[in-house]
Design brief:
The complex is a heterodimer of chains A (450) and B (712).
Chain A lengths: L2 H11 L25 H6 L4 H6 L10 H10 L12 H7 L9 E6 L8 H8 L1 H15 L3 E6 L4 H16 L15 E6 L9 H8 L23 E5 H13 L1 H6 L8 E8 L5 E6 L2 E2 H7 L9 E5 L8 E2 H4 L3 E2 L1 H6 L8 E6 L4 H15 L5 H18 L7 H12 L7 H26 L9
Parallel strand pairs in A: 1-2, 1-4, 2-3, 5-11
Antiparallel strand pairs in A: 5-6, 7-10, 8-9, 8-11
Helix pairs in contact in A: 4-5, 4-7, 6-7, 6-8, 7-10, 15-16, 15-18, 16-17, 16-18, 17-18
Chain B lengths: L1 E5 L2 E5 L5 H8 L22 E4 L6 E2 L10 E3 L3 H16 L15 H9 L16 E2 L4 E3 L10 H10 L4 E4 L6 E4 L12 H5 L6 E2 L12 E6 L8 E7 L2 E7 L12 H5 L14 E4 L2 E4 L2 H19 L4 E5 L5 H13 L5 E2 L29 E5 L3 H4 L1 H12 L3 E6 L11 E4 L5 H16 L11 H12 L3 E5 L1 H4 L4 H15 L2 E4 L6 H6 L11 H5 L5 E5 L3 H4 L4 H8 L3 E6 L10 E4 L8 E4 L5 E4 L12 H12 L9 H9 L3 E2 L4 E2 L31 H4 L14 H5 L2
Parallel strand pairs in B: 1-5, 16-17, 16-23, 18-19, 18-21, 19-20, 21-22, 23-24, 24-25
Antiparallel strand pairs in B: 1-2, 3-4, 3-5, 6-7, 7-10, 8-9, 11-12, 12-13, 14-15, 14-25, 26-27, 28-29
Helix pairs in contact in B: 7-19, 8-19, 8-20, 11-12, 11-14
The chains are: A alpha/beta (450), B alpha/beta (712).
Chain lengths: 450, 712
């Protein structure tokens, strides 16, 4: 099947990605079929009940801001964008007493290679994000929010705008939400296709209409964010998790995951599997189970390696990943990161030098150019990997790569430097013989993939 | 006060300071490129990474705030390794063209590479090549491959110059500093970007490839253009001024100078320089020696005095002349028995009986901290680029600027309130503001005016500002109702607590007043002298055609004199003059200026006079000797200065005695003056030097006319 027809199939049905019965206890993806994204469908699924509960319109008195934050803290919900920072804690950093403007921003600039979960959430269940954001705004006393959506998924942006219109018309957004007196305006904005705008401060710059370049931190967005005002930024999936937590309580959320790793997580499984797609499973599900849900390694080949959390997370060889459960702590213990949950599966026909060549090129292309190690170093890494792949490598190149990567890591303004360096170091750590083979034999250790 | 430990030394710095501040205070050098004390923090070059206890990663010293008890180490393995690695990254794509680079020898990258760079490069790929840009006649961007993307120039534009003319376009290693699609850099402060560029990416176009930095001797001087009195370092090779850069003086020009101060040196080497005295005989100009020339002048003056009386002799002097020159010219004219001397060539109204020299009214440094300022009749940004810069900083920190002007010209700063009316209505505009002040303060207005919404806004802004000022620009000083404007400004100042001051036009406008370059009792003022009331005229450093309100008419009127003597560094005034005496520009003579705030700044000659040129103070002294006038026995210019400043300035502080400065409107208004538009010189027409600075004349600013500047 060629790329165009694959894309057509996806656009028509989404069957390859999110609509299947292989989720486990789904919360966000539950009951979706690709057509039931509208407000009334969402309400039928119990949508906006959490908001009514928060605003005191579900029989019980309204929740206080502190109560909402306490529930989110109890749920041990952690940021789904990649860093895994505890969401409740982040919300509590917001200086609620600050008298001026405050902003809520949803980071839907889903640019991490391998990740496609936020796209599907916004396209097929947009109201869950809107509801989550309204609750978050209520908890932090914020009146204006923005959803910054990746520029390449323009149709998703349009879908989200449509959903916003529905929510405004139904009184879920506006100056007097559901007659409660609570005021929150939510706007959608789209990027223009820069990976770096997914970095939260780069996103804020871009949202302000400037060139997307990360800011030096501190100050953090909680004190100096959008337009210099206190700002909270969360990932799309994080917001999408909030309504369920409010309805069912923090303890229930922890219970469906594992301690310190509450809830379910959507994994975008791609690469050499039979059934690539988004899989929403409880935190702590074994990797083996996830692989099984995705139909196993394609054509029955051997699993070689897995990039567990998007292209910037260090690669893990098969023997290590097969012992892992899919949650923040387990993957971190194995020496990688859960990141955005983009699981890239590679079978034994994959050349790791070629893979790294593609990754390094990506980071060179996406470096913003602001700070020295990343601007100069990503290009250097890419060129050296390039020459190894094309048979021009030298025996000293691996040491050079390691050293350059080490010199980038931890010395840049934002995490893109680390993101470029980590894959290089992990590939060399786990697959050094392949690189050496390339240098000596000027060709691949593995046969070309057919 | 927060105390930290830096390399084992205890350093105390104010709260909110960074590790870099602490290092500067303790004299510890931390290598850096993007950090500049006057610019915002970018933290992007990563050269200043240091080792801070309890921090896992090395931290940038420029952006890390100090905390009590912080322990910083700048020389540990961790810090040095980080700095070395950043240096390696900076060098991989930097061309190895130091031997032909203008920055060579004064390059931060070169200097720091000596300490932190490797001896050989591990980078063997092709280096990046960045295409050249043409951004105008002053800044060369021919070698942008040298750029290390520190963005100092970008931040300078945004924060100091107030216009973001340069930006970093593209991404990653394709990032380039450039203007928006091929535009030029037109800021009047643009040359400072050359200074702050740590590498040879931005270089001086007029200076390029003309000398190496180590061949140049550096001599301090003072800018002879506007009334800031910017401190300069003039760099000289083979008795020729090769370039001019700022000398840092926090109280005056900080570390900046205007392009006018920086690039006017080109005129010093212009072909229009007069290098030998000349006399016009039978309509033909002949070169003569000094003795002949001075005797000719003395003879002429004696004859005219005996024929027409001393009152027919007068001097028109430029306020760009030194104190010494002005003092001796005044003494010469008065010794001859005349009271005809004036520096106010561009004025329309000539008041008498000033109680002190008109001045800024406050220290220059205080401009940066104003909370409210009303500027009347000034094109601030072009007339006084560095004052504008200071007021821009005040605005950045919450100050409010209000304007009364005849046109709305971009000042590269937000203007809170503006009253744009023709110059003829400025008095009415101030009357209205005074009326608004009166209403707000419940006092009687000096004249009945209309409390318009704008007037009320301006009045409230001045009343609200604890540190407020009303500043009168060149347009207000040269206005036909200048004294009325001053009186109203003084009334507004009294009621609102705002300081009232004149921006003052030239490097020595304040000094000229102190030196008595104003007509005494019965003397003729500049307007009368330019109108043809003289038989003999001395023109000191001035070209009435360009430097006076009368313009070409002045030349005609002066041509009717029996004798006109032009003392100028240039071959000029040839239509009306009979004698040209080559006198030294500021680089070829010792001298002193008093700037707008009353600061006396002296300087030495930095090169020998060109050809037969002589310092004007020596010429005047010699002329007085030939005329047999007593009291001119000065051997050195410092003797002239000592006498000139006796009772005028405090020699210890170098400041004019406060009693000699006054903006009181005590002066007597001249009989009603027919209306003329105020005469204001465009930025690059201010004086003879800038007019002949070839590169400045190629800038966009040089192509603006008087009318577009003031009337817009």
């Amino acid at each position: 099947m060629n790329a165009a027809s694959l894309l057509a199939q996806f656009q028509a049905t989404g069957a390859q990605t999110s609509f299947h019965n292989r989720h486990i206890n789904p919360q966000i993806m539950a009951g979706l079929d690709g057509s039931n994204w509208r407000l009334k469908d969402y309400e039928t699924r119990g949508g906006y009940q959490a908001l009514r509960q928060v605003l005191g319109q579900a029989g019980a008195p309204a929740m206080t801001q502190d109560q909402v934050i306490a529930v989110v803290k109890e749920s041990s919900l952690r940021g789904r964008g990649g860093a895994g920072f505890p969401t409740g804690l982040k919300w509590s950093f917001m200086p609620r007493q600050f008298p001026g403007d405050k902003y809520l921003v949803c980071n839907s600039d889903e640019g991490e290679p391998g990740t496609c979960k936020d796209r599907d959430i916004m396209e097929f269940n947009p109201h869950i994000v809107i509801e989550g954001m309204i609750i978050a705004a209520y908890a932090m006393g914020i009146a204006v929010g923005y959803n910054y959506i990746h520029g390449e998924i323009f149709h998703t942006y349009q879908r989200f705008e449509e959903a916003l219109e529905e929510a405004r018309a139904a009184g879920y957004l506006g100056d007097n939400i559901l007659g409660s007196g609570f005021k929150f305006q939510l706007h959608a904005a789209h990027g223009f296709g820069a990976y770096i705008c997914g970095e939260e401060t780069g996103l804020l710059e871009s949202l302000e209409g400037k060139k997307g370049q990360p800011r030096y931190k501190p100050p953090f967005p909680a004190s100096f964010g959008l337009y210099g005002k206190p700002t909270t930024i969360n990932n799309t999936e994080t917001f999408a998790a909030v309504p369920w937590i409010i309805r069912n309580g923090g303890a229930a959320y922890v219970a469906c995951g594992k301690p310190n790793n509450g809830g379910t997580k959507i994994y975008s499984v791609s690469g050499d599997v039979e059934l690539p797609g988004n899989y929403e499973v409880p935190m702590g599900t074994t990797f083996a189970k996830l692989l099984e849900l995705a139909g196993g390694v394609r054509k029955g080949r051997q699993l070689k390696a897995v990039i567990p959390g998007g292209s910037s997370s260090p690669v893990l060889p098969a023997n290590i990943i097969m012992d892992c459960t899919m949650d923040y702590d387990s993957i971190a213990k194995a020496g990688s990161m859960l990141g955005s949950g983009a699981v890239i599966v590679m079978d034994d026909s994959r050349c790791m030098v070629k893979s790294l060549q593609r990754l390094s090129y990506f980071y060179m292309h996406e470096s913003c150019g602001q700070c020295t190690p990343c601007r100069e170093g990503t290009g250097w890494l890419s060129r050296v990997v390039d020459r190894i792949e094309t048979g021009q490598g030298r025996p000293s190149d691996m040491e050079l790569l390691n050293s350059v990567a080490e010199n980038i890591q931890g010395r840049t303004i934002c995490a893109l430097g680390d993101a470029a360096a980590m894959p290089v170091r992990a590939m060399l750590k786990h697959f050094m013989p392949e690189f050496e083979y390339h240098v000596v034999h000027k060709t691949c250790m593995v046969p070309a993939y057919v | 006060m927060i105390e930290i430990e830096l390399d084992g030394k205890k350093v105390g710095v104010a709260e909110g300071s960074t590790v870099m501040h602490a290092a500067e205070k303790s004299g510890t050098h931390i290598p850096h490129f993007c950090y500049h004390k006057k610019l915002s923090i970018a933290a992007s070059c990563r050269m200043c990474l240091v080792d801070i206890e309890k921090m896992p990663k090395p931290m940038p010293a420029c952006a890390t705030s100090v905390t009590q008890g912080m322990i910083v180490r700048t020389k540990t393995d961790k810090a040095i390794k980080a700095q070395q690695s950043v240096m390696e990254f900076l060098l991989i794509n930097h061309p190895l063209d130091c031997p032909i680079c203008d920055q060579g020898g004064e390059c931060q990258l070169q200097d720091i590479a000596v300490g932190y760079g490797g001896t050989a490069s591990r980078y063997e790929e092709e280096k990046r090549v960045v295409k050249v840009k043409d951004v105008g006649p002053l800044i060369s961007m021919q070698e942008m491959s040298r750029c290390i993307h520190c963005t100092r120039c970008v931040r300078f534009g945004q924060e100091i110059a107030g216009v973001m003319e340069l930006g970093m376009s593209n991404r990653g290693e394709h990032s380039e500093i450039e203007t928006f699609v091929g535009q030029s850099v037109d800021s009047e402060l643009s040359g400072n970007m050359i200074d702050i560029c740590p590498v040879g990416a931005l270089t001086s176009k007029p200076f390029r490839y003309s000398a190496r930095t180590w061949e140049l001797s550096r001599r301090k001087s003072v800018s002879p253009h506007d009334s800031t009195g910017a401190n300069l370092i003039v760099q000289v090779k083979n008795n020729r001024v090769m370039r001019v850069v700022p000398f840092e003086n926090e109280a005056v020009n900080e570390c900046w100078i205007a392009d006018r101060d920086r690039f006017s040196y080109e005129a010093l080497n212009s072909t229009e320089r007069l290098t030998t005295p000349m006399i016009k005989q039978g309509g033909k100009w002949n070169e003569v020696d000094w003795k002949t020339a001075l005797e000719y002048v003395a003879h002429g003056l004696r004859n005219i005095k005996s024929e027409h009386g001393a009152a027919s002799i007068g001097a028109l002097v430029s306020p760009h002349s030194t104190l010494e020159e002005l003092y001796l010219t005044g003494a010469l004219v008065r010794s001859l028995g005349s009271e005809n001397i004036d520096y106010r060539l561009r004025n329309a109204e000539f008041d008498t009986g000033r109680s002190g020299a008109r001045w800024l009214g406050l220290p220059i440094a205080a401009l940066s901290n104003l909370q409210s300022v009303l500027v009347v009749g000034s094109n601030l940004r072009k007339d006084h680029p560095l004052f504008a810069q200071r007021i821009r900083q005040a605005v950045r920190h919450g100050g409010e600027v209000s304007v009364v002007a005849s046109g709305r010209v971009d000042w590269a700063m937000p203007v809170a309130h503006d009253q744009v009316v023709p110059a003829a209505q400025w008095v009415q505009a101030l009357v209205d503001i005074a009326a608004a002040v009166a209403q707000e303060k419940s006092v009687a207005a000096p004249q009945s005016g209309n409390v318009t919404p704008v007037a009320l806004d301006i009045a409230r802004s001045l009343i609200a500002g604890e540190r407020a000022a009303v500043l009168l620009g060149n347009g207000a000083a040269h206005h036909a109702q200048a004294l009325s404007l001053l009186k109203l400004a003084n009334w507004i100042g009294e009621q609102t607590g705002a300081t009232v001051g004149y921006l003052t036009e030239a490097a020595n406008t304040v000094g000229a007043q102190l030196m008595g370059a104003l007509p005494g009792a019965g003397g003729l003022h500049a307007g009368q002298m330019l109108g043809g009331a003289l038989k003999a005229a001395l023109l000191l450093n001035t070209e009435p055609e360009f430097d006076s309100a009368a313009g070409a008419a002045a030349v005609k009127a002066l041509a009717g004199c029996e004798m006109v003597v032009s003392l100028s560094p240039f071959k000029t005034n040839m239509e009306c003059a009979d004698v040209l005496l080559p006198v030294a520009p500021f680089t070829e003579t010792s001298g002193s200026f008093v700037n707008a705030e009353g600061r006396v700044q002296s300087f030495h000659a930095v090169v020998k006079p060109l050809g037969e040129t002589r310092p004007a103070w020596k010429v005047l002294r010699a002329l007085a000797d030939i005329l047999g006038l007593p009291g001119f026995g000065f051997d050195v210019s410092t003797d002239v200065l000592a006498q000139a400043l006796y009772g005028v300035a405090d020699s210890e502080s170098g400041m004019v005695i406060p009693a000699r400065l006054s903006n009181a409107s005590a002066g007597v208004q001249a009989a009603s003056v027919p209306w003329v538009e105020p005469c204001v010189a465009p930025i690059y027409q201010l004086d003879g030097l800038v007019r002949r600075a070839s590169s400045l004349q190629l800038t966009a600013d040089a192509h603006m006319t008087v009318s577009s500047e003031v009337v817009a």
